[in-house]
Design a protein that fits this description.
With 233 residues, the protein is of the alpha/beta class. The chain is 33% helix and 28% strand.
């Protein structure tokens, strides 16, 4: 089986004043299609830097990043932007919804950008995503008319609506209470199970990390543990 995501000897060094800060130290990671991977660790361990490099938002100091067969580290900025548009869905701690648009408008905008103005998904796929995330009755609501959990579910729908190769989730429950956190995590789990959506999620919360079927622990810029839970599907 081919990897949907692959990194080889990934390093990232920041220069702060006269001091080199090593955010990543030779990270090797392979993710298969349909995996749900949780990456956890304390603040400053390198997990956010890793996620931003995986998403093509940062360039590493050295090493390779391959997403669905495309090597991000050999691309121009414009080419990386194109890969992000076609193959990567992002879910952030901040929902980043357009406040003047309804939930429907936010999703239509994502579809428009992905397809460069042309429809890219069928109506059945759209209905399946909305049903899975329990958003059918929220499409006419603007973000300020929804709870934090509902807003994050719209953000997840926006990320997954075009069926990207991989979803990268950056502390997706960081701004939510425990009830909404559980709901959002269960939604991600359902997307992985029902749509076979590949997900890589970073979190500092062990309970959130346990939702993934594979847990990776980072410390000081390196992976120190990589374990899998049984696939009960």
């Amino acid at each position: 089986m081919s990897h949907i995501l692959l990194t080889e000897n990934l390093t990232m060094t920041y220069r702060i004043g006269k001091v080199d800060v090593h955010a990543l130290r030779g990270v090797d990671l392979a993710v298969e299609p349909g995996e749900f991977v949780s990456i956890m660790g304390p603040s400053g361990c390198g997990k956010s830097t890793l996620l931003h490099i995986l998403g093509g938002l940062l360039s590493p100091s050295s090493g390779r990043v391959v997403i669905d067969g495309e090597d991000l580290t050999r691309m121009s900025d414009a080419s990386r932007t194109d890969v992000r548009r076609r193959k990567i869905g992002f879910v952030f701690q901040r929902f980043n919804l357009f406040p003047t648009l309804t939930a429907e408008g936010n999703l239509r905008l994502a579809e428009h950008i992905h397809g460069r103005g042309r429809p890219t998904i069928d109506n059945q796929t759209r209905r399946d995503v909305l049903k899975l995330l329990r958003l059918e009755n929220k499409m006419a609501h603007r973000p300020l008319e929804m709870s934090g959990g509902e807003q994050q579910r719209v953000a997840i729908a926006r990320a997954v609506i075009n069926r990207p190769a991989i979803i990268l989730a950056d502390e997706p429950t960081g701004n939510l209470d425990s009830e909404n956190s559980d709901l959002v995590l269960n939604m991600l789990k359902e997307l992985n199970r029902e749509l076979n959506q590949t997900i890589v999620m970073i979190t500092h919360n062990p309970e959130a990390a346990a939702v993934g079927r594979r847990m990776i622990e980072m410390r000081d810029g390196a992976i120190i543990r990589d374990s899998r839970q049984p696939d009960l599907r």
